[in-house]
Design brief:
The structure is a homodimer. By secondary structure, chain A is of the alpha+beta class. Chain A has a single domain (13-122), classed as Arc Repressor Mutant, subunit A (Orthogonal Bundle), CATH 1.10.10. Chain A is 57% helix and 17% strand. Chain A is built from 5 helices and 4 strands; from the N terminus they run ββαααββαα. In chain A, the strands form 2 sheets. In chain A, strands 1-2 form a two-stranded antiparallel sheet. A two-stranded antiparallel ribbon of chain A has the order 3-4. In chain A, α1 crosses α2 (39-45) and α2 (39-45) crosses α3 (50-64). Chains A and B meet through β1, α3, α4 and α5 of A and β1, α3, α4 and α5 of B.
């Protein structure tokens, strides 16, 4: 049975002193905060330790120089966490950027690796 | 002190049953085999366990249906391992592809994240 090849692309942002500050983990975490209105629930929903979720948020806040989450008290959701406008802007910029890079990469994938199928025909594995 | 943002991009190939089969690890490993003429030395040079190096090579061989390494006996390098033509082709295709995707991503990075500097000015972190 012929296996197809697929691309997995990861986009991460680092500072110039090699501190990881934004990537798929925090992006998903922020999206889950939007959905759950709680950092604790967001972390739990992706099986991430609450302490790790806090650390990721704190690191991004230090690098970007702004708060990522703000607390709401009472109201429609009975209090909890929401994203700040700055966190929204970062998240949107990251997702748009990641999506454009992925589109470019996907468009060139077949052309770059199509020889894979011929490899299998011309060079059967020795055993 | 203002920190600059940098991109780190990772390109990995998976099969449709989600088996990782090619990426930065095996690419570097194959390049080190070329340099050292030995899988053991190649693995050691990147602080990778020899057993892991073998596993990575075996997995790629199973997916791509071809040998990655061939043994040489005696000769200029006193025996050892060299890349098969198929491994060369894969490695070259991967590096060329990775490089074109990275170039595209780098070209759009500043435009996508330049607002980062303004974020720091407009939203000083509370503490």
């Amino acid at each position: 049975m012929e296996k197809e090849l697929h691309l997995k692309l990861t986009v991460r942002l680092y500072t110039d002193d090699n501190q990881r500050c934004f990537g798929p983990g925090i992006a998903t975490l922020l999206e889950r905060v939007e959905a759950h209105h709680s950092l604790r629930s967001a972390a739990a929903s992706m099986e991430m330790a609450y302490s790790k979720a806090w650390r990721i948020i704190r690191t991004a806040e230090a690098v970007f120089g702004c708060k990522m989450l703000s607390s709401t008290i009472g109201g429609q959701h009975g209090g909890g966490a929401v994203l700040t406008p700055e966190a929204h802007r970062l998240l949107d910029a990251y997702r748009a950027y990641e999506s454009s890079v992925r589109q470019f990469a996907e468009d060139r994938f077949e052309e770059s690796f199509h020889f894979y199928r011929e490899l299998k025909k011309t060079a059967p594995p020795e055993d």
